Automatic annotation (TrEMBL):
Stored InterPro entries: DctP_fam, TRAP_DctP, TRAP_DctP_sf
Gene3D superfamilies linked to this entry: Bacterial extracellular solute-binding protein, family 7 (3.40.190.170)
Cleavable signal peptide: 1-22
Similarity comment: family membership: Belongs to the bacterial solute-binding protein 7 family.
The organism's place on the tree of life at top rank: Bacteria
Species of the source: Vreelandella aquamarina
Pfam families: DctP
This protein's record includes keyword Signal: yes
Protein name: Periplasmic substrate-binding transporter
Alphabetically ordered keywords of this record: Receptor, Signal, Transport
GO biological-process terms attached to the record: transmembrane transport
Gene Ontology cellular-component annotations: outer membrane-bounded periplasmic space
């Protein structure tokens, strides 16, 4: 691991892990970290997982969800699961490229055309191989490829109808070199910035622009500080449900099967909820005053081809090709 948990998050996680591991007998409460709240697409999926887990185990296995990054930011949670101090969690793949190069696939622009394309690829042998790499590189067990959804641009300058409209716009990216290259290729001035600083930066005009799934744009109230919502659909963002590998391996084979089955039952429920919420939030964001633009994506795809070519050797040229050209 390249980075470590802050002491405050570490102490809280250890306290949770210690209290949970002390549970007597075969009953077990599994603490689950979520970046968003209970009504989000993440919350719906995790709560369904907990419901099925309790049903299948006849009440022996239950979950305790911890919302809104209460156990730490996503990278801290992934590390915490690997270290065995956080039980389970749902997180975007954004931080995972720092551990396993292949996960930078999900930072690359315009890899997936639509939800069916993404689901087919993730539910194939390619998703299984990525899950295996996560076990090796992060010491976590993937239970289900849940999702955040497609990411879109918002800004406070102008509608984005074509890549040239991004010229001169100061755009915040996640702390990802791939994302910086993507937005520079599209013409924006790209600056990596920690998530906790984004709203204030937009509010104060330090940054003009950001990108996220619609659920996050709504949940974080970006409509208060951004005028334009542009359906750029530039990146598909999975949010896998994971468990610490050591913890998963500590369960009996019967309980391991129950955990996997509960997650797989919850998977289509979560994905369906995610798509429904996307449509709901799109309408609500427009009602809240955002100007919504649906640009032709072909010029955007063309503009970022050099980014795919540059990063394919790092991510794995065969993996990138398999994802882009996967038949669904």
């Amino acid at each position: 691991m390249k980075h470590f948990l802050p002491l405050t998050s570490l102490a809280a996680a250890i306290a949770l892990a210690t209290s949970t591991h002390a549970a007597a007998g075969t009953e077990r409460v599994i603490n689950v970290s979520l970046p968003l709240g209970p009504d989000s697409q993440q919350g719906i999926g995790v709560l369904k997982f907990g419901e099925e887990l309790e049903r299948l185990s006849e009440g022996r296995l239950t979950i305790e969800p911890h919302y809104d990054n209460a156990l730490g930011a996503e990278r801290e949670v992934v590390e915490g699961m690997g270290f065995g101090i956080i039980d389970a969690g749902i997180a975007s793949t954004g931080p995972m490229g720092g551990f396993v190069d292949e996960f930078m696939l999900f930072d690359l622009p315009y890899v997936f055309e639509n939800h069916k394309h993404a689901y087919a690829f993730l539910d194939s042998e390619h998703g299984e191989e990525l899950a295996r790499l996560a076990e090796e590189g992060m010491n976590v067990k993937f239970l289900a490829w849940m999702e955040n959804g497609f990411r879109h641009n918002t800004n406070s300058v102008r509608p984005i109808e074509k890549p040239s409209n991004l010229e001169g716009i100061n755009h915040r990216t996640q702390e990802s070199r791939v994302q910086v290259d993507t937005w520079e290729a599209l013409g924006a001035n790209a600056t990596p910035m920690a998530w906790t600083e984004v709203y204030t930066a937009l509010q104060q005009g330090v940054m003009d622009s950001q990108e996220n799934p619609l659920a996050t744009i709504y949940d974080v109230n970006f409509y208060e500080v951004q005028d334009y919502l542009n359906i750029t659909q530039h990146v598909y963002s999975p949010a896998p449900l994971m468990m610490g590998l050591d913890l998963f391996n500590s369960f009996s084979e019967e309980d391991q099967a129950i955990i996997i089955e509960a997650a797989q039952i919850a998977l289509p429920v979560q994905r369906e909820a995610s798509q429904e919420l996307e449509q709901r939030y799109l309408g609500q964001l427009e009602e809240l005053g955002m100007t919504v633009t649906h640009p032709d994506l072909a010029p955007f795809r063309e503009a970022v081809k050099p980014v795919l070519e540059e990063w394919a050797p790092t991510v794995g040229a065969e993996l990138v090709d398999a994802a882009v050209n996967y038949k669904y």
